[in-house]
Amino acid sequence: MARGVEITWAGGEHEFLLTIELLRALQEKCDAGPAHVLNRLSSARWHVDDVIQPIRLGLEGGGMSKEEARKLVKLHVEDEPLSLSVITAQAVLASALFGTQDDEVGELEAGEADQSANLSRAENGASPASISGGESSET
Q: What's the rounded Cα separation, in Å, for the pair 28 and 50?
């Protein structure tokens, strides 16, 4: 399941989420795939909708009504220099494509125990030399 990202933006904390359906809408509006849009944002070759659409669609995906998202984007993106919103657009799009820092691969779910902590040295693959910190006594 896709997870969003919470960003402090426009005077408050807002949840941004780009689902597959919203990424398709972004692709259509920007006439480019999401990775290409992110590349343009990162290389200062962005188009107007490359900045506006990830933010607007991300707000909608995060639970905001279309009307409220459009109002906020008009006020804080369209009515301001667009370059001020490039980093926000990058963060929203990058979180959809790559996840967030706290969304690590293999992270344990709440209530799961790390079983490797309970293994003996022999069971966890540690060699005698690595356990003692010295070299093996074989010559």
A: 11
* DSSP helix/strand/coil, 6: strand
CA dihedral 99, 104, 109, 115 (to 10 degrees): 160
Q: How many CB atoms lie within 10 A of CB 32?
A: 17
Task: For 59-87, write each residue's pLDDT tens digit.
Answer: 999 999 999 999 999 999 999 999 999 99
DSSP summary character for residue 75:
I
Residue (of 75, 101, 81, 86) closest to 37 by Cα position: 86
100 compared with 65, residue with greater pLDDT: 65
- Length of the chain, in residues: 139
Tokens 């259509």 found at: 28
